[in-house]
Amino acid sequence: MFKKISTAVVAFMMVVGLSACTPAPTGPVEIRKGVVEQITATTIKSNHDTGVGAVIGGLGGLGVGALIGSGTGKAVAMVLGAIGGAVAGNEIQKHYDKPVEGQQIFVRTSNGVLVTVTQPTGNLRVGERVYIEGAGTEARVVPQ
């Protein structure tokens, strides 16, 4: 009975944890025309939440440990599985937490407004005609 309940709880927690990683649905995308005026090299910090890998890994390890043995052996397997999963999940997350090379792009739009967008390094150059797709932190500059 405990095995079924713990397996269901672990599965539910993994689904909830992984669904947080799913991007939110987006509506219509705003597109503006412009010309690149300046490009500055920068680094972009990771936007991953710290500790999520360890939590999801620990829950996964706990679930696997619950499937092994019975009695005291089962409890030990669950503890070792949770610890091993947490360590593995944390190491995997570290791989994705590294900053990436980026560029801050200043674009003069067709109506005269100066817009700046920071994004991963691309092949844009000063004077190039571009589109600004989206707004806020989701904005991207792409060649016309």
What does this molecule look like?
The protein is elongated and about 70 Å long. Strands 3-2-1-4-5 form a 5-stranded antiparallel β-sheet, with no helix packed on it. Strand 4 and strand 5 (140-143) form a beta hairpin. Helix 1 packs antiparallel against helix 2 (52-66) and helix 2 (52-66) runs antiparallel to helix 3 (72-96). The protein is α+β, with helices and mostly antiparallel strands and 144 residues long. It has a domain at 26-45 and 99-144: OB fold (Dihydrolipoamide Acetyltransferase, E2P). The chain has 3 helices and 5 strands; from the N terminus they run αβααββββ.
Note the overall shape.
elongated
CATH class of the domain at 26-45 and 99-144: Mainly Beta
From the N-terminal CA to the C-terminal CA, the straight-line distance is: 61 Å
Structural class: alpha+beta
Q: Strand content of the residues, in percent?
A: 25-35%
Strand tally, please? 5
Residue share in helices? 40-55%
Number of helices: 3
CATH architecture level-2 label of the domain at 26-45 and 99-144: Beta Barrel
Runs in which pLDDT lies below 50 for 5 or more consecutive residues are none
Going by CATH, the homologous superfamily of the domain at 26-45 and 99-144 would be DNA polymerase B, N domain, beta-barrel
Q: How do the SSEs run, as a string of H and E?
A: HEHHEEEE
Predict the CATH topology of the domain at 26-45 and 99-144.
OB fold (Dihydrolipoamide Acetyltransferase, E2P)
Strand order of the largest sheet: 3-2-1-4-5
